[in-house]
Amino acid sequence: MPAQCPTGAISFVEREAAAYDEAAVLANKAAKEQAAAKPHFSGCPGSMMRQFNRNSQVNAETEDSAAGYTVSPVAPESQLAQWPCQIKLVPVNAPYFDGAKLLIAADCTAYAYANMHQDFMKGRITIIGCPKLDDVDYSEKLTQIISNNNIQSVTIVRMEVPCCGGLEYAAKTALQNSGKFIPWQVVTISIDGKILD
Ligand code: SF4
After folding, report:
1. 103 CB under 6 A from ligand 1?
2. Is residue 168 in contact with ligand 1, taking CB distance under 6 Å?
3. What's the mean pLDDT in 173-187?
4. Closest by alpha carbon to 124, among 78, 60, 76, 57?
5. What average pLDDT does the structure give for the chain?
6. pLDDT tens for residues 108-154?
7. Is 106 near ligand 1, meaning CB less than 6 Å away?
8. Closest ligand 1 atom number to CA of residue 129
9. Which of 157, 164, 187, 189 gets mutated to test ligand 1 (max ligand atoms within 8 A of its CB)?
10. Is 90 exposed, middle or buried (0-12, 13-18, 19+ CB in 10 A)?
11. HSE toward the beta carbon, residue 87, CA cutoff 13 A
């Protein structure tokens, strides 16, 4: 039996095209031009510089989370004033360094010392690192930051354990190498979260 051609596979429907909306076309064009005008950041998105206005943030009131952690009824406000905060990632020149009180903190201090944000980070530009695990000599970059910017003071917060002494050493070396006379202090945190004398 000869094969038969299928019928009804194609049909035509007549309908009116949507009216040309000039306003919408112009708005779309303007949005595209605006997006194209924004400075292009080509690095890791996590390293993109940001500065935060901490005066306008409102505390959120939240209850226990089902996610497995407890959220305080009155959430403390973060005092991190810029991003990124890792010494390895911060630029050596940044607007937020101008006139800054600089906090150089070891990674573990924020976990050991409960009130890190209010007692140390508030009003300061915070940069952090771990002299043991980061496997880098921070003194060179810290020297550049202190030399290139109008830093008002330097606070170093480290843990009591010997491995953390590298951060203090790097910061002191940077202060010395910068040739500047800047007020500085070292605060040592015990592993049970207390400030040691
Ligand atoms: S050096 Fe030791 S105590 Fe200091 S941040 Fe690194 S792991 Fe923590």
Report:
1. no
2. no
3. 98
4. 78
5. 85
6. 999 999 999 999 999 999 999 999 999 899 999 999 999 999 999 99
7. yes
8. 5
9. 164
10. buried
11. 28
